[in-house]
Design a protein that fits this description.
By secondary structure, this protein is of the alpha/beta class. The chain has one domain (about 1-225): Alpha-Beta Complex (Spore Coat Polysaccharide Biosynthesis Protein SpsA, Chain A). The chain has helices at about 30-40, 80-90, 110-120, 170-180, 190-195, 215-225, and strands spanning about 1-10, 25, 30, 45-50, 65, 70-75, 100, 130-135, 140, 150, 160-165, 200-205. Cytidine-5'-monophosphate binds near residues 8, 76 and 78.
């Protein structure tokens, strides 16, 4: 059984504004609805655990979407704390060895074919897998004084996206270990890698964008209107 954990407890400090970015309106629907529907659309995904901030006044209170259960729990200060909260709040019938999908609330444009490929390949891997895309730009290392110190080779560099697919207990252990070591992990895979695991990279689409700044919103709206699968 696969459940999705959708961390939505961020305050969106890089985005600014009154409403957290996951609740911004796209064609009359909050952004998070697209992210939830995209993961719930796969027949193997049984339900979603949405992780909210304690003072969330915007969550619409859905208890199901497209006939699948949607539950909520309260997250923490960092994204990893929120994912840990989601893992521990999963229904009891999600077993320790079952895979869970972690998908950012702020990624509304997940293609069904990407999710399908991630699940196909990830479930065949002993550890799990993440969606990612190869880096296409030239990368510069900043010197801190406005100058460029170096150009980094981009071969073999990938941008990590979500969803990321791992087993419930292994991921819990990995996130707890990072937290106990005081290491801020920015995705689930980073916590798993610290434990010596080697998750599979599954190539996703460049348009699986995370809405992070106001400039991303019209782009997300365009993608959702015109490039739905
Ligand atoms: O801040 P960032 O864009 O990396 O957030 C990615 C996702 O993690 C967002 O959906 C955000 O709501 C969520 N998050 C969370 N708890 C936090 C910080 C971020 O659930 N403490």
């Amino acid at each position: 059984m696969i459940w999705a954990i959708v961390p939505a407890a961020g305050r969106g400090s890089r985005y600014g504004g009154e409403i957290p970015k996951q609740y911004l309106d796209i064609a009359g629907v909050p952004l998070i609805a697209y992210s939830l529907r995209a993961v719930l659309a796969h027949p193997s995904v049984q339900g979603a655990m949405v992780v909210l901030s304690e003072d969330d006044a915007s969550w619409p209170g859905w208890t199901q979407i497209d006939g699948k259960p949607v539950r909520t729990c309260i997250g923490g200060a960092e994204r990893a704390d929120s994912v840990l909260a989601g893992l521990s709040a999963l229904p009891d019938d999600v077993r320790p060895d079952d895979f869970v999908l972690v998908h950012d609330a702020a990624r509304p444009h997940l293609r069904a074919s990407d999710l399908e490929r991630l699940l196909d390949l990830g479930r065949g891997d002993p550890v799990g897998a993440i969606l990612a895309t190869p880096v296409r730009d030239t990368l510069k290392r900043a010197g801190g004084d406005g100058g460029i110190d170096a150009t980094e080779p981009r071969e073999r560099l990938w941008r990590a996206l979500t969803p990321q697919l791992f087993r419930r207990l292994q991921l819990t252990r990995a996130l707890e270990a990072a937290r106990d070591a005081g290491i801020a992990v920015t995705d689930e895979s980073m916590a798993m890698e610290r434990q010596g695991h080697r998750p599979l990279l599954v190539e996703g689409s460049d348009d699986n964008l995370k809405v992070t700044t106001p400039a991303d919103l019209p782009l997300a709206e365009f993608l959702l209107r015109f490039t739905r699968e």
